[in-house]
Amino acid sequence: MARGRSDEAAPSARLSDGTLARVIPSAFGGGFELDVDGTPQSHVDLDDPTHLHFEYVARMGAVIDRLRMPGQPLTAIHLGAGALTIPRYVEATRPGSRQQVVELEPALWDLVRENLPLPRGASIRVRIGDAREVLGRLPAGLVGSADLVVSDVYSGAQTPAHLTTVEFFTAAARFLAPDGVLLVNVADGAGLAFARRQVATVQSVLEHVIVLAEVQTLKGRRFGNLVIAASPAPLPTEWLPRLLAAGPHPAKVAEGREVDDFARGARVATDADATPSPRPAASVFDL
Fold it and tell me: Exposed, middle or buried, 93 (CB in 10 Å: 0-12/13-18/19+)?
């Protein structure tokens, strides 16, 4: 990740909570970053939508590459839009995919749509509203049909508490096909108490779970992002070498007993006791 840079000329929008969203040129191999109140939310390369700069997004892309046959269109639901990096990736690698995207902030979506337009002809529908509330009014035909559900929702630098609970993940999992995959972005720091609760919570909803992260992050030695991949069906073990080889490096994929050990003793998060994800220190986004 990188800290947002000041640029008074950058296109911007004031969000409902008073924070400022900006689209700024990226210092990393071209493209643009969506920055919200100093926190980089997304990186988009309009010339190459397969360029996934942020490490955790690249890990999500590695899992998506394993779904179905290469190039086969997917049915996908994305909770949290940002600059639509993953929906653009799916469209580029799986032309003809049907995708639903949920974004809370209409001003943010307007900013992205005007300055980082979607590919012409892409079947990507953006719905405005709270991710959990919109799940309750998605078309009934999507229930049990999604190859992919992505939960990557942030308000500033934190995931809201009501989008971390067993009730939320149960609602999201209803849309998965029998072998569909739920991807969850979890940010945490030393000790990984929040991440352990999130893994335990997802495990209480879906039987098969793996965790992908940078080695030092998974050991709880630095603040970073972990990707939970979960499914009602077994996640094929032949995925694992390919996921490791896909990087970014040094990569770690935890499965089976290692995931159980990671979550052991962690309390499942419920609507009654959930907390938002921890707020990272400002230094996390230093260049």
Answer: middle
Say how far apart CA 144 and CA 176 lie, in whole Å: 5
Displacement of CA 50 from its chain's centroid (Å): 16
The residue behind tokens 């109140």 is 37
Helix, coil or strand: residue 259? helix
Residue indicated by tokens 């959990």? 132
Query: Looking at the predicted structure, is the pLDDT value of residue 154 above 70?
Result: yes
3-state secondary structure of 131: helix
CB atoms closer than 10 angstroms to residue 147 = 22
Query: CA-CA distance, 21 to 35, in Å (whole number)?
Result: 6
Question: pLDDT per residue over 77-101, tens digit each?
Answer: 999 989 999 999 999 999 999 999 9
Q: At what angle are helices 239-246 and 55-65 packed, to 10 degrees?
A: 150
Measured torsion, CA atoms of residues 66, 71, 76, 80, in degrees rounded to the nearest 10: 80
Give the pLDDT confidence of 39-83 residue by residue, as tens digits.
889 999 999 999 999 999 999 999 999 999 999 999 999 999 899
